[in-house]
Amino acid sequence: MHELSLMLELRQQALAQLALHNRRRVVAITLRIGLAAGVDADALALAFACAMDGTPAATAKLTIEPVAGRDLVLAALELG
Amino acid sequence: MCGRCGCEPEPLTLQVQTSLLQRNAAAAAALRQRFTALGLPVINWLSAPGSGKTALLEQLAALHPQPWRLGVVVADLATDNDARRLQQHGLQAVQVSTGTLCHLPAALLERALQRFDLSALDLLLIENVGNLVCPALFDLGESLRVVVLAAGEGEDKPIKYPAVFASADLVVINKIDLAAALDFDLELMLRHLRQVAPRARVLLTSARSGDGIERLLVALR
After folding, report:
1. Does B15 sit within 8 Å of A76, measured CB to CB?
2. Which is higher by pLDDT, B91 or A39?
3. Which of B11, B15, B103 sits opposite A27 (nearest CB)?
4. Which domain holds residue A51?
5. Does the beta carbon of B29 lie under 8 angstroms from any beta carbon of chain A?
6. What is the Rg, in whole angstroms, of the alpha carbon atoms belonging to chain B?
């Protein structure tokens, strides 16, 4: 499945923001997942752990907000 | 931690609001612009594995006046069987092996298109990975999206896979010659389809008997 490739994209975006704002670690990530996006929340959580392992986002708290529609949006990042 | 007194900075919350699909979306938008500039119609050909995507293309190739300036990009996890079958029917077909990837992303399509002279094509067709879930999410810059089903597949398939069917311009129900033998309830499937895709056009075909192929050819032009 492609939950992993989505989490790799998330990793890239999160780490880019971290560098841009000169912060040390990602504390929390909020994702909005469209209910028609064809993505499984549990598989996503597992892929998240795999993708972030060994990075400054490894201990980030992941919150998933289900919404209508087909998109997957990185809604918010909390940087420490 | 600050070097002077050891304090931690205040956490910074960013409202990022970026799509995780944006890279594919941007690549697809660029492809769509390119296709439009060329006046090239592009079909995204989707279905579950085994509905008859390749068989239908073979039938279309056999019926269409030769030579047909159709280019086909076939995506499968493994083997180049489908591209070979289409080449044997005189079509320009290029195979993309996606490895473990369950769909064809725009970036891989772009790479495959380097093997065509797009200005010498009248039509480009992308035979996607057999999968009703992931390909629905990945825009490829197409101008027409076709989803193929087969008689004998569950009549409730459309409501089980609403995203892909809702995105279809045309739904082809293939293997219609087997309907009676499989006790297939066409009317029930059509009712389910109408629930998720009220505006999609529906065609019935049989790649084996040739039924409906001519109508399909007209619909794809």
Report:
1. yes
2. B91
3. B11
4. 2-79
5. no
6. 21
Contact B16 A17 (CB under 8 A): yes
Least confident of B57-71, B93-107, B193-207: B93-107
Query: ipTM greater than 0.90, yes or no?
Result: yes
Largest CA distance in chain A: 36
Question: How far is residue B20 from each of residues B127, B137, B178, B205, measured CA to CA in Å?
Answer: 24, 11, 42, 38
User: What's the domain count of chain A?
Assistant: 1
Q: Do A36 and B11 touch (CB under 8 A)?
A: no
Query: The domain containing residue B181 runs over which residues?
Result: 12-220
CB-CB neighbors (< 8 A) of A74 in chain B:
16-20
Does a structural domain hold residue B50?
yes
| CATH number of the domain residue B130 falls in | 3.40.50.300
Q: What are the structure tokens assigned to B135, written together? A: 């390909």
Question: CA-to-CA distance for B22 and B9, rounded, in angstroms?
Answer: 31
CA distance B139 to B169: 14
